[in-house]
Automatic annotation (TrEMBL):
It comes from the Bacteria. The keyword Oxidoreductase does not apply. The keyword Cell membrane does not apply. This is Protein kinase domain-containing protein. Keywords: ATP-binding, Nucleotide-binding. Gene3D superfamilies: Phosphorylase Kinase, domain 1. ATP binds at K43. InterPro entries: Kinase-like_dom_sf, Prot_kinase_dom, Protein_kinase_ATP_BS. Residues 14-85 form the Protein kinase domain.
Length: 85
């Protein structure tokens, strides 16, 4: 399915601005938190993984990656959020 530029998510809290990249686990987007007026990065899990028998394992890895990113602090990196798991 995927998320498209300009799409509003989570009842308008986030607006997708552009796709940044695709990888094995999902798609990463640059977005804007409309409540806090700040740039964020959103990552969705790859829809194809949902069809695999080991989806729960993929989901755990996806969530673990999000937790690592949330703990990461660097002046160049915006905040990471999980959109879909």
């Amino acid at each position: 399915m995927g998320v498209f530029s300009g799409k509003s998510l989570q009842q308008g809290k986030y607006v997708v601005e552009q796709e940044l990249g695709r990888g094995g686990f999902g798609i990463t987007y640059k977005a804007r938190n409309t409540v806090l007026a700040q740039a964020v990065v959103l990552k969705t899990i790859n829809d194809a993984l949902r069809q695999e028998p080991q989806f729960e394992e993929h989901q755990r890895h996806f969530q673990d990656e999000a937790k690592r990113l949330a703990r990461y602090s660097h002046w160049v990196v915006d905040t990471a959020h999980v959109v879909s798991s």
